[in-house]
Amino acid sequence: MALPEPYAADHPFMPKDTFKDQTILVTGGGTGLGKGMAQMFARMGGKIAIASRSAEHRANGVKAIEALGGQAHGVAMDVRDSASIAAAFDEFEEVLGPVGVLVNNAAGRFMAPAEDTSDNGWRAVTQIVLDGTFFCSRELHKRCVATGRPGAILNIGATYAWTGGPGSAHSAAAKAGVVNLTQTLAVEWAVDGVRINTLAPGWFPMTDKPDHMRGSWSELDLRRKQMPGGREGHIQELGWAATFLCSPFASYITGHTMVCDGANWLRHRASWAPPFTPVREWAREGVGKKATRSA
Q: In which domain, by residue range, is 224 found?
């Protein structure tokens, strides 16, 4: 028996006006999990600011929010560049109003043995995941302090921040940094009324994820059997977690990392495990079934 299926995405959760008159900035909010979380914020009255370097992704994200009857605006932004971030915040404020909630969702990842990872490959991931999370968070904090407004930040983490991520040394190290950053900034910024938490998603298969993150849809049944909960996650479940952590109902929660994965990461602590395969034996085949499955 699997975990019970969730309510539908439009089932009442928190009050529909929980984020009324608030602007929620979601980096990478035009596709995948970012878009799914943005849609849940919109269902609860939020105005959605979508930041992405891709014009196509921004347009898709705005279209998805408007289909729900919500308001959204997309701006080109490079999370690795403080000037780009500041300019995007300015435009969002002009069009939608001051950003009060930030979801640091933008990320990058590719599979490779650590010894095969180039300098540029390492920086491409760590600068987006860790530097970008800090730069965007710092910008929100600065603006909240300047105007005397409270703020909420949600970082998107990963459970391999604790377990290690063979084949993804760059991403695992950066995500571990994000968890520590969350804890550090929670203490520093609580006096300013700015909360910061991390959400670590499990397996949420979505058709608009990049191919290397999506896996093979022919393997869904196999993947479900690997899950302690017996099924994949549904995007509304991640959306509920995200909106709760950023809502007034979580006003005393800061510095916390919430895992939303049906207990999957805990199974790695079990005494049994499949036969070990060295990373370099499968990762060098490129992004394919073995690399996706072993991640």
A: 23-264+274-294
| Phi and psi torsions of 36, nearest 5° | -60, -45
Tens digits of per-residue pLDDT, 234-247? 999 999 999 999 99
Please check whether residue 246 lies inside any domain of the structure. Answer: yes
Residue 66: strand, helix, or coil? helix
In a domain, 50, yes or no: yes
In this predicted structure, the answer to whether residue 274 has a pLDDT above a threshold of 90 is no
For residues 193 and 150, is the Cβ–Cβ distance under 8 A?
yes
The SS3 of residue 31 is coil
Question: Could you give the CA distance from residue 194 to residue 174 in angstroms, rounded to a whole number?
Answer: 22
The helix (run of H) or strand (run of E) holding residue 51 is: strand 47-51
Query: Per-residue pLDDT tens for 188-206?
Result: 999 999 999 999 999 998 7
CB distance 140 to 151 below 8 Å: yes
From the list 41, 92, 110, 160, the catalytic residue is 160
Asked if 252 is an active-site residue, the reply is: no
Percent of the chain exceeding pLDDT 90 equals 79
pLDDT band at 290 (very low <50, low <70, confident <90, very high): very low
On whether residue 77 sits in a domain, the answer given is: yes
What is the C-alpha to C-alpha distance for residues 44 and 19, in angstroms, rounded to an integer? 6
- Per DSSP, 191 falls in state G
> Which CATH number goes with the domain that contains 107?
3.40.50.720
Q: How far apart are CA 153 and CA 197, in angstroms?
A: 6
Which ranges of 148-278 does DSSP label H, i.e. alpha helix? 160-163, 169-189, 211-214, 220-226, 235-246
Number of independent structural domains in the chain:
1
Report how far apart, in Å, the C-alpha atoms of 8 and of each of 201, 241, 260, 271, 287 are. Answer: 19, 15, 17, 36, 33
213-269: pLDDT as tens digits? 445 555 788 888 888 888 999 999 999 999 999 999 999 999 999 999 999 998 866
